[in-house]
Design a protein that fits this description.
Number of helices: 10
Number of strands: 7
Pfam families: Transketolase_N (PF00456)
Largest sheet: 5 strands, parallel
Oligomer: single chain
Protein name: Transketolase
Order of helices and strands: HHHEHHEHEEEHHEHEH
GO molecular function, one term: metal ion binding
Mean pLDDT: 96
Number of domains: 1
CATH superfamily: Thiamin diphosphate (ThDP)-binding fold, Pyr/PP domains
Shape: globular
InterPro entries: THDP-binding (IPR029061), Transketolase_CS (IPR049557), Transketolase_N (IPR005474)
Radius of gyration: 17 Å
Keywords: Metal-binding, Thiamine pyrophosphate, Transferase
Amino acid sequence: MDDLHLRERAVNIRESIIKMITAAKSGHPGGSLSGVEILVSLFFGGVMNYDPKNPQLETRDRFFLSKGHAAPLLYSTLAEAGYFDKSGLVTLRQLNSPFQGHPDMRKLPGIEASTGSLGQGLSISVGCALGLRLKGFNSHVFTLLGDGELEEGQIWEAAMAASHFKLDNLTAIVDRNKLQIDGFTEEVMSIEPLNEKWLSFGWNVVELNGHSFEELIPALQRAKGRSDKKPLVIIAHTIKGRGVSFMENVCDFHGKAPSEEQAKVAYSEIRECDVH
């Protein structure tokens, strides 16, 4: 898929994120918007093997959204990929809606695990990668982590296990937007030097611009089919609230919905967003 079509996918997903969170009057726009190019690269950049018409394809690649509060990002991407109709997205967080505030694997196709308790997604991914290896599949496991989530101890237990079991069929992606619910990560609980931390746990590390398809897609494609006996982490430097000026790098929009008037501004700005 060429750059123009990738950009169009990103625009569609960002618009859906704003639409569903505005309708719900609740949700997490900041961290959903920051991860858009990452998921567009995975699902539409020729990286992941998946089939929306056969969501349980045994040999499929797996994607786990560890930062489950960014559910609007996952829902919008799966709808864009054809797993289900987009019309249901506006029922986000409504009673009996399958589009819960955090992903529920029992309610929608394409969701590999119910997530939301931060820190657990990487452990789930390690278990999945081990299981795929035991079955002899060449499938790859990708998981998206929040940078504030890295303060959870379980992340580092999972990182140690992934290295110990030499899981080169596992790639973690850190959405390094530098903000969490209470403020900047480096003020709440410093996680730097992040590169060195992952290296010390036995992982290969790549750092890149998390809004650049030119950097993301080649790195993600190279992640698959490796045989270097090491898990890989991609530290993707992003901007929280990317594409909407009044949300960018604003902690308040970690978990606050825009008003109807703010949403109108957001739609106009999203169309002009430069993702490079």
